[in-house]
């Protein structure tokens, strides 16, 4: 089932550019990192799940890029652009070979099952 996204025709023409450009820089930065790196973790400071995902990758000997955007006390609007872009509501956001695989729990499940290595191929 595809994720519901408001069609552009249902956004008034006067605000389409504003919607399209809302924190576009953070989305472009993450998108570029995902294209350049096999594994990317997008996180935020003070979040224990972001640390958990990175530790799991380190324990598996898997190199990864890490992008951190603020913490619980700031930068939430910029992080919200990433949530809207991916449809994933929490941090971290873990990408493997350009595909969003979820957060720390989903990453740990992939590592435990051996499916993570398959995704890297």
UniProtKB/TrEMBL annotation:
MF (Gene Ontology): glutathione disulfide oxidoreductase activity
Database matches in Pfam families: Glutaredoxin (PF00462)
One Gene Ontology cellular component annotation held by this UniProt entry: cytoplasm
Domain of life: Bacteria
Residue intervals of the Glutaredoxin domain: 48-101
Family: Belongs to the glutaredoxin family.
Protein name: Glutaredoxin
């Amino acid at each position: 089932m595809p994720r519901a996204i408001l069609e552009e025709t249902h956004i008034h023409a006067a605000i389409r550019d504003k919607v399209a450009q809302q924190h576009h820089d953070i989305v472009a930065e993450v998108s570029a990192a995902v294209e350049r790196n096999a594994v990317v973790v997008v996180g935020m400071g003070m979040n224990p799940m972001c640390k958990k995902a990175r530790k799991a990758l380190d324990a598996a000997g898997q190199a990864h890029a890490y992008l951190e955007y603020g913490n619980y006390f700031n930068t939430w609007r910029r992080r919200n652009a990433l949530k809207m872009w991916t449809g994933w509501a929490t941090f971290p956001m873990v990408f493997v070979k350009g595909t969003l695989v979820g957060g720390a729990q989903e990453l740990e499940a992939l590592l435990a099952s051996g499916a993570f290595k398959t995704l890297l191929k």
